[in-house]
Amino acid sequence: MMASKEMLQLLVLASVLAMLMANQAWGCENEKVLLFEVCKKSLTKYPSKFVHPSQECFQTVLATDMPCVCRILTPQDEETINVERLVRVARDCGRPLPVGTHCGTYVVSAPPTNAPRAPPQA
Fold first, then answer.
1. Dihedral, 80, 32, 71, 14 alpha carbons, nearest 10
2. Are 36 and 68 in contact (CB under 8 A)?
3. Are residues 25 and 68 in contact, defined by beta-carbon separation less than 8 angstroms?
4. What is the pTM of this model?
């Protein structure tokens, strides 16, 4: 009888932890939507030339949990934005993602040694 009670407690604990972790991962969905909207010009796949982040984008990136955004990127997001540019914008705005971070299907690599940080555009 005692083993059943302990097993039930363990299952309840595991369920609560799973719900907390799922809620934490999706907790930045609103940040992702705002980031995509505010930084649209810098994140778009087209034009082919990179557009430096605006001041508003810069401020949004500073207030965003970038690792969380990377964890919740969907294949649909990757059809809309250039993930490599997302990583660059994070770095240019002072929120670099650690090398090896998975951002959707993209894996963050070390930036070029001559990669200057871009000042925000007015």
1. -130
2. no
3. yes
4. 0.72
